[in-house]
Amino acid sequence: MQTSQRTDQQRATERRRKELLEAADRVVLRDGPEASMNAIAAEAGITKPILYRHFGDKNGLYRALAKRHTDALLASLRTALDSADARRDRVEATLDAYLTAIEARPQVYRFLMHPTEQESSDTEKGFDAGRQSAPLLRRLGEELARIIAERLDLGPGGDELARVWGHGIVGMMHAAGDWWLGERPCSREQLVRHLADLLWGRLAAAADMPGGPGL
Amino acid sequence: MQTSQRTDQQRATERRRKELLEAADRVVLRDGPEASMNAIAAEAGITKPILYRHFGDKNGLYRALAKRHTDALLASLRTALDSADARRDRVEATLDAYLTAIEARPQVYRFLMHPTEQESSDTEKGFDAGRQSAPLLRRLGEELARIIAERLDLGPGGDELARVWGHGIVGMMHAAGDWWLGERPCSREQLVRHLADLLWGRLAAAADMPGGPGL
DNA sequence: CGGTAGGTGTTACCGTTAGTAACAATGGCA
DNA sequence: TGCCATTGTTACTAACGGTAACACCTACCG
């Protein structure tokens, strides 16, 4: 029968694709995000054209690779967001989940943050001003925005507000996490508390330094 | 006299360097951050090796180029931070200054956010986990941290807190700005207000959506 | 049985890139 | 005049992403 055979072929192809992705994963995690297609092909025991047949181009391979890791990270963040009872605890748990992930596997983090300049397709060749951030950040931002809009009563225009906050919070988490991972100026728990304090309006409530120009 | 002559030479060299930087600027702003060294040399009316003599490698040129724009942006942000009287107005003015800058010259913004993988030098070849962000963001974060630590009375451990907040706020501004620049979901003024609301603790104060699981 | 279609795999190449070696010309200075 | 530094060139290397052309195997189908 043609269909069942076709299905067998497809499964074999998918299995092969998965093997190639795992080889690529090993290389990227060993050599960093700039790993060459030659190196990946060699790790998989084959040569370049096969990679190109499976993934189209380097971006295709990297997008497939990033999707796996991004899905995993997103799942753990969603779990954290549903964990505790108090809002502050949930926010802290989510921040902590993100920081724990990037701390545990910095190479994965480094790869995911690498801008892969996903195909522009619709933009008219030249200047897409935005889209500078890694796709991971965009996805996290949108996801968080959805959750905020669903769970918080923000009144009229709440959806727009939720999206701004989603991207803003993710950006805060990312930048602080990146800096923290490089310099390790404090414990993870303390960083989480500091960031939650910021979100809880402590910046607005703090007193001016006596004698200064104030902020 | 040897010293004065040496000074003349140095000045000539610096002027030449400046000319080359201006040519590079034109090309990068026209062709994007991936402009080739050949293209830059051609724009300057010379050939590659001269560029390499002046700037060492591509990163050297790009770092020199980025410094000028970063200095300019930082100056305008500092001005905004000293503008109004109320803290909320200052924060809004600063956010607005940043967003105005990236809106007015998105090519410059795009170039500055391009990760230039500045020389690692001290890290032992392979894994610097952090340092993923563009140098511009690090610098903005450190600068903001300094100002916060100087002007706010945050009690013991305030310096550490200020640094976390500095990088966190800059990251928030960057991610939200990048998303906004790409999708233009609202006016600049509204984005500024939304972000300031976030920093003013409105996330913590918002009511749960009635009937939902809450956040 | 032989043909044909589709998948896997190869070698050998292309165009472009960052970066370099080797050499020529200019101009001030002893 | 001879020396030295600087500016400039041409011509190259090594590596990269990507592709064309071809060989092989296997399975279905007349």
Automatic annotation (TrEMBL), chains A, B:
Transmembrane segments: none annotated. Residues 14-73 form the HTH tetR-type domain. The keyword DNA-binding applies. InterPro entries: DNA-bd_HTH_TetR-type_CS, Homeodomain-like_sf, HTH-type_TetR-like_transc_reg, HTH_TetR, Tet_transcr_reg_TetR-rel_C_sf, TetR_C_32. Keywords: DNA-binding. Residues 36-55 bind DNA. It comes from the Bacteria. Pfam families: TetR_C_32, TetR_N. The keyword Membrane does not apply. This is TetR/AcrR family transcriptional regulator. The lineage of its organism: Bacteria, Bacillati, Actinomycetota, Actinomycetes, Kitasatosporales.
